Amino acid sequence: MKKLRNDIDKVLEKIIIEHEQVAREQQIHSRKDFVDVLLSLMNQPMNPQDEHVYIVGRTNIKGILWDMIVAASDTSAVAIEWTISELLRNPKVMKNLQNELENVVGRDRIVEEKDLDKLEYLDMVLKESLRLHPVAPFLVPRESMKDITIDGYLIPKKSRILINAWAIGRDSSVWSENVEEFDPERFANSDTDFRGHDFKLLPFGSGRRGCPGMQLGLTIVRFVVAQLVHCFDWELPCEMKAEDMDMTEKFGLSMGRANNLLAKPAYHLLPKTI
Ligand code: HEM
Asked: What is the C-alpha to C-alpha distance for residues 154 and 161, in angstroms, rounded to an integer?
């Protein structure tokens, strides 16, 4: 990361300079994006009433932008890779999803963003994938602000807290005996939500420090998985059996596959659709 520092700085500077230029040229800004909003806060105290007045500078803005880019790219890619892995390991689920896509979209055009809300089975598949493979298995570490007792355990002020979302997702007392199985049907007719309200499914965390990019992340993952499954039939290479697939995880702040996923696509839509 240290080696890349200068290159990253150049990219972020370019983004900022482009936005500053547009802001200078257009007195009334028709559409403000995230960078415009950050720039409008530059060199101003965040909250003048605060004891320590905190001013947002150019370096802070670059830090926030880089945070966003890193938090957005790896997480979405990891979620897509696990979802496709589980679909390859569970051909029946893959077929159900492909059927839903054919019913809703047809085979004469590709999936568009407007279709996503109609894809209920895709939603169940995604919930199931994030239950078994939460991208950030321990979420992001927290610190307790005061002494608190939970379930008879005293957690002293300033303790480092890790929430093991991975273990919660695989706890049979919370889910069911088939907890290790990839079974999207468990979410049929259920209002279990993954946006931070149900503590048994927390792929985006919860509360004030929950993922601010959840909506974008969900849209990206839904969109990419839908297009991959809709446009192609997928097979494992070298006549590998689904049950022999390597599903080893690589532990880290985000937990992706230890080894690359290999799969063979075959075009599935009507000729000349793409
Ligand atoms: C499928 C995609 C994604 C998943 C699974 C995911 C998951 C998470 C999780 C679990 C956290 C920690 C929440 C907590 O501890 O309560 C988090 C934090 C964060 N996410 Fe995401 N995320 C995704 C996409 C994105 C995207 C697209 C962005 C930006 C556009 C983003 C930006 C962030 C940021 C900035 C934080 C830190 C928030 C803070 O510390 O206050 N994430 N994400």
From this structure: 12
- Residues in contact with ligand 1 (CB, 6 Å cut-off): 67-68, 71-72, 75-76, 79, 135-136, 139-140, 203-206, 209-213, 216-217, 221
CATH 1.10.630.10 residue spans of the chain: 79-267
The per-residue pLDDT for range 169-209, each reduced to its tens digit, is 999 999 999 999 999 999 999 999 999 999 999 999 999 99
Distance 196 CA to ligand 1 centre (A): 12
pLDDT in tens, 67-98: 999 899 899 999 999 999 999 999 999 999 99
Query: Whole-angstrom Cα distance, residue 13 to residue 11?
Result: 6
Q: Whose CA is nearest to atom 31 of ligand 1?
A: 213
Judged by DSSP in three states, 235 sits in strand
Amino acid in position 20: E
Which H or E run includes 219?
helix 214-231
Q: Check whether 211 is labelled as a binding-site residue.
A: yes
**pLDDT score of 31:** 76
Beta bridge partners of 250: 256
Q: Say how far apart CA 33 and CA 23 lie, in whole Å.
A: 11
- pTM value is 0.91
CATH fold for domain 79-267:
Cytochrome p450 (1.10.630)
User: How many angstroms separate the CA atoms of 113 and 92, rounded?
Assistant: 25
The DSSP-derived string for 136-198 is: STT-S-EE-SS-EEETTEEE-TT-EE---HHHHHT-TTTS-TTTTS--GGGGTT----SSSSS
Q: What is the mean pLDDT of the chain?
A: 93
- Is the ipTM value over 0.90, yes or no? yes
Report the alpha-carbon distance of residue 130 to residue 186 in Å, rounded.
13
pLDDT in tens, 35-48: 999 998 888 877 77
